[in-house]
């Protein structure tokens, strides 16, 4: 983690499964995280405003290293997994949306499974499940910042 790092938490609280990102952003803000955080429960970064937010980021945070956080769909065996990868996140891909990619690295939480036969859908996901994943991600970022002396 660098001083010029920006955290972008993608999703909306209108769907429990998609609230992972905004919950992480909220937890980071409440913990007075030392780096800029975009996307909280109060001010989410979601499909409707994502392009505008990315435009604002390019003006306000030029040359920042972006860590993108989002929920995703995956195989049932991977439910609850938190995956970190080099490269951007593809918001909305799991539900058939075509949105801009975000981030230099991405942290995604597998919040539900996808059944190829039935297409894309989110089942009844418990908020506690998403909450616990968001706590783990936010605590990991807070710990990483502390270890860097931020």
Describe the structure.
This protein is of the alpha/beta class. It is built from three helices and five strands; from the N terminus they run E-H-E-H-E-E-E-H. It has helices at 20-30, 50-60, 127-147, and strands at residues 5-9, 37-38, 65-74, 82-86, 105-113. Strands 2-1-3-5-4 form a five-stranded mixed β-sheet, with helices on one face. Strand 1 (5-9), helix 1 (20-30) and strand 2 (37-38) form a beta-alpha-beta unit. Helix 1 (20-30) crosses helix 3. It is globular. The termini are close together.
Comma- or semicolon-separated keywords:
single chain, 150 residues, alpha/beta, five-stranded mixed beta sheet, 3 helices, 21% strand
Summarize the structure.
This protein is an alpha/beta fold and 150 residues long. The chain contains three helices and five strands, in the order βαβαβββα. Strands 2-1-3-5-4 form a five-stranded mixed beta sheet, covered by helices on one side.
Q: Report the radius of gyration as a whole number of Å.
A: 15 Å
Largest sheet: 5 strands, mixed
Question: How far from one another are the termini?
Answer: 9 Å
According to DSSP, the number of beta strands is: 5
Question: What class, by secondary structure content?
Answer: alpha/beta
Quaternary state reads single chain
Strand order of the largest sheet: 2-1-3-5-4
Tell me the overall shape: globular
Q: How much helicity do the residues have? A: 25-40%
H and E string: EHEHEEEH
């Amino acid at each position: 983690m660098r001083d010029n790092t920006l955290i972008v938490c993608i999703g909306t609280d209108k769907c429990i499964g998609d609230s992972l990102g905004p919950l992480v952003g909220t937890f980071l803000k409440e913990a007075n995280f030392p780096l800029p955080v975009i996307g909280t429960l109060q001010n989410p970064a979601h499909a409707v405003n994502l392009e505008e937010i990315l435009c604002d980021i390019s003006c306000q945070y030029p040359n920042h290293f972006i860590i993108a956080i989002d929920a995703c769909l995956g195989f049932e065996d991977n439910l609850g997994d938190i995956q970190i990868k080099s490269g951007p996140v593809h918001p909305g891909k799991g539900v058939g949306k075509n949105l801009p990619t975000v981030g230099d690295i991405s942290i995604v939480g597998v919040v539900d499974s996808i059944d190829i036969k039935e297409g894309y859908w989110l089942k009844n996901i418990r908020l506690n499940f998403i909450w616990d994943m968001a706590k783990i991600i936010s605590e990991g970022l807070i710990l990483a910042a502390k270890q860097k002396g931020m």
